[in-house]
Amino acid sequence: MSNTTRAERLEDGSYRLVGHKWFFSVPQSDAHLVLAQTAGGLSCFFVPRFLPDGQRNAIRLERLKDKLGNRSNASCEVEFQDAIGWLLGQEGEGIRLILKMGGMTRFDCALGSHAMMRRAFSLAIYHAHQRHVFGNPLIQQPLMRHVLSRMALQLEGQTALLFRLARAWDRRADAKEALWARLFTPAAKFVICKRGMPFVAEAMEVLGGIGYCEESELPRLYREMPVNSIWEGSGNIMCLDVLRVLNKQAGVYDLLSEAFVEVKGQDRYFDRAVRRLQQQLRKPAEELGREITHQLFLLGCGAQMLKYASPPMAQAWCQVMLDTRGGVRLSEQIQNDLLLRATGGVCV
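The structure assignment produced for this chain is given below.
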């Protein structure tokens, strides 16, 4: 059923759309961007819910989707029964035009997953302050303190990368910034959205049984997480997109070299990871797409941490996230700094 909707040009310049859309989000919107087949190929159309004369457009809702999560956002199946739309751009340019919107939506997916992870962490750390175990607050128990610190450290790196990515989107009139956004947006969406589900599950474990109950909010966050991995292209699509940029976009390797050279020598784990990525990029095989995308994302985070975070915090991040041997223990000072930042200075 994919892309079978057809559009026929009318005398007044508008188009008549006939066909079926299996997944149609937010049907109550004022308008939608819809792909449909024309004589010139797959094209993009502006399809309003109401026509200029006030009549409802011929978009028939067949049924609402019974989804795992994201239930406050209606999704449905629709039939276009001679619906009216207006061509955007030229016939045959549909994919190119829709991807302009898709890039920003992918960034939104990464931001949304990160925000929900931060919300889950806030619930977990609040509970750890209130809950007492063996006569002391849960947050003072060494193992729990280390778990929460690792969660906070992960969020620090993601925040640094997402702010850099937001700057690139704001400045995309600059060719380098546009390329930065083009490369790191799918990488961020892939990694952050993948991390969301296990992260919320970890927060759930901090709360224990109440975390599994609806009144804790965590079940809703958990159900909400998968949709951002799927929207605007699931995991493999993001990784293939990253490989496409690496293989076809002029200047991308110079861009990466410039970003990594800027912080070279500040941390041995970061430098080692850069060399490992450089070896993989000599011949970026498709089957390594996920590993390459993940490493690229981590190095993007690491570069921002080394550039803007305090040296101890940045080095802790690099060791935890980039040391392939694992088993890294965070110092008490780093744990204190992370938890103080995460709680807005509340004594922990």
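Interim note for the steering committee: The longest strand covers residues 75-88. The chain is about 55% helix and 15% strand.
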